[in-house]
Amino acid sequence: MQRDPRELGGAWRTSQRHTFTAPPAELAARVERFWAVTWHYEQPYCQLIVPLPHVHLTCRDGRAELHGPSSSHVFRELTGAGSVFGIAFRPGMFRPFLGAPVASLRDRTIDATTVFGPSVTSLTDVGSACRFLEARVPAPDPRAELAAGMVAGIAADPALTRVDEVAERFAITVRGMQRLFADYVGIGPKWVIRRYRLHEVTERLAAGREIDWATLAADLGYADQAHLSRDFRAVFGEPPTGYAQRYDGLGG
């Protein structure tokens, strides 16, 4: 099948504009970033969305939705002119807002009014979102803070490739870590580790670095190159070489 030329070499950027805003200090412990996307396509475009262990609140056309952590890539069709405003919560920190295990949102999108009430549909920019969340900041939750710290530790340290290594670093049992992630992150620790290590593969591709795939697979804790490629395809929608061609290394 012939590929859409708008996928290749980062050409999608000519039809989309992405902005990212850091949260104020009052929300930084719970919100990772605010973001907004605008687009204009004369013909429908199939946008690849790659997963990270975040819960997103999105507002578009008077609707507000909560998107739970996704276990694999998804595609969304963009057509005509449109825009969406979103909030990416820090992994582990949405549980106090939700009042239920975040695993209940895994691979799901729900109406955000069921969690935040009807006024959530009015969020259209960073200012309104900050005022809305600051009025609803939940009580401190040490387990949420632990989960968030563990995910941040995984993201920051490329040497962490196994669940038991992370558990030992944070003085928790492997079973305890698995329960914590199900409750607060919504997806398992093994998946989180693999997702961040595979993201580092895309960074190497973006830098144009030559990669010894067999050695890299072993370094990342894979049995062989085939298992690495399988996981990469599940997360990013295609093998590493295809992903590099599609996104020029910069992601969707």
TrEMBL record:
Keyword Transcription found: yes
Superkingdom as given in the UniProt entry: Bacteria
Keywords: DNA-binding, Transcription, Transcription regulation
Keyword Metal-binding: no
Residues covered by the HTH araC/xylS-type domain: 145-246
Name of the protein in its database record: AraC-like DNA-binding protein
